[in-house]
Amino acid sequence: MTDVSSKGSQPGDERPVLTNRQGHPVYDNQNQRTVGSRGPATLENYQFLEKMSHFDRERIPERVVHARGKTSYGFFEAYGKWGDEPIANFTRAKLFQEQGKRTPIALRFSTVIGGRDSAETARDPRGFAIKFYTEDGNWDLVGNNLAVFFIRDAIKFPDVIHSLKPDPVTFRQEPARIFDFMSQSPESMHMLVNLFSPRGIPSDYRHMQGFGVNTYKWVNEAGETKLVKYHWMPKLGVRSMTEADAAAVQAGELGHASKDLHEAIERGDFPEWELLVQMMDDHEHPELDWDPLDDTKTWPENDFPALPVGRIVLDRNVEDNFAENEQISFGTGVLVDGLDFSDDKMLIGRTFSYSDTQRYRVGPNYLQLPVNQPKSSQVKTNQRDGQMTYYVDSSGENPHVNYEPSITGGLREGQFPAQDEQGPEIRGRVTRKRIERTNDYKQAGQRYLLMEDWERDDLVHNFVAAISECARPVKERMVWHLLMVEDDLGLRVGEGLGIGPDDVKHLEPLASQDLTDEDRKRLSNLG
Ligand code: HEM
């Protein structure tokens, strides 16, 4: 505690004294320094200028997507197995190996489209992003709650997000813009059938599933690779809300999901999720009528069982929202040995985008911030300087050497892994082509058929309400797509919009589409 006689303090008040960032004690925090009590103010008024100019810079740009979120801490506990088999058969990643081994984690839940203070009751995908602070450095798994995504090629991401964000003129989220884009992007149908069902508004974060969505790889000691998908299952079960439920919650509270999670952790009611992994051999799987690298598809669990590999528990809230929730930075490129990318064309684009935006949003030294630093491994780089350098990543024995190689000290390269080559050999010509097995409707239709009656009613109601705001050609194209997804869905939404199959039979498939035989059969039934 700074010992200073403070004009403002009462005698005997033992609380620490306020200072400025230079360490100067502040004895008057109510009045600026002025010439006489009525001014003018003086420019050397350091305390006032520091306080005000720091306040002027309090905000950093919010995330371009997933701006509203809630971070909590906890641990991942490994089972050491994938089903009955030792996990080492499939991955050499250290965090998974030993039964009972715990790795600290930070998890950020989020909504996607709204701003930092927007309502958490929105119909919107939810983010489910985890940072594992492993002994080999950080691993980030950045997923959502709906298992699939709107698009399958990263080049369309700015467009899909622009269509979902507020209109640049009215600044309202406009269904007319959303379905204008989606109706020309048939790969979005599976995601839309999920998003407009009750699953599109989870009741809160504790009753929500998570999915890695993109296809990743596991690599074992021998360099053998598998394709994998990650699933998080909440121990509390899954709960959703209808529009009416959500409106009632929103009337009283904009941040109900963050509040629910924060309060549960405060009272020691720690939420838990189990991590399940689906796996398949690392090749193209020509026997499937969908592509394993397509993030608009799920892998049927009958053929590719989802088996448990560990669990997470959240047991601690952040101490400061800005430092730990606003500045936490996840990325799909952040992997550790034994885990790898696939050639999923979304994953590749994502991997560029996250650290690119974070160097802009948080700053080039974002990885020096405590919440982003590895906690269980050491950082030693030759990266230097840049805005907000917080410390020098420790050098080798000679502080003059911030380069490598060197014979005068400095850092050295690590041990070359025993198996450096992995995965199938890839051949092809440089091109711009969509994948061959697009199959945009089948899984969307299966999802619809799996729903309970009330969920289907809710889906139809929500589709009709949103699509009715669209222009006639967009409505027709949406009904056409929904008939291709499942007759019953297309007929019911069409009825709500006053558009029957006869009204859409003049529509040709889009130039961007490849139809399956099954799709062609449906198409001929329209006519
Ligand atoms: C956040 C880009 C697809 C899940 C973000 C951010 C960007 C971004 C720029 C903001 C990051 C930050 O400011 O720290 C992209 C691109 C995508 C893509 C370019 C496709 C090419 C996806 C998909 C998912 C997803 C498919 C779900 C599987 C998330 C999550 C966050 C996020 C959960 C929030 C992370 C946090 O809580 O900080 N994305 N994204 N994104 N994205 Fe994506």
From TrEMBL:
Q: What is this protein called?
A: catalase
**UniProt KW Heme keyword:** yes
Lineage top rank: taxon: Bacteria
One Pfam match, by short name? Catalase-rel
Tell me which positions the record assigns to the signal sequence. Answer: none
What family name appears in the similarity comment?
Answer: Belongs to the catalase family.
Question: Would the keyword Lipid biosynthesis turn up in this protein's UniProt record?
Answer: no
Its biological function? Answer: Decomposes hydrogen peroxide into water and oxygen; serves to protect cells from the toxic effects of hydrogen peroxide.
Return the annotated region ranges for Disordered.
Answer: 1-39, 504-527
The active site of this protein is located at: H66, N144
GO biological process terms, alphabetically, are: hydrogen peroxide catabolic process; response to hydrogen peroxide
Q: Where does heme bind?
A: Y354
Q: What is a single cellular component term in the Gene Ontology annotation? A: cytoplasm
Q: Which GO terms describe its molecular function?
A: catalase activity; heme binding; metal ion binding
* CDD domains in alphabetical order: catalase_clade_1
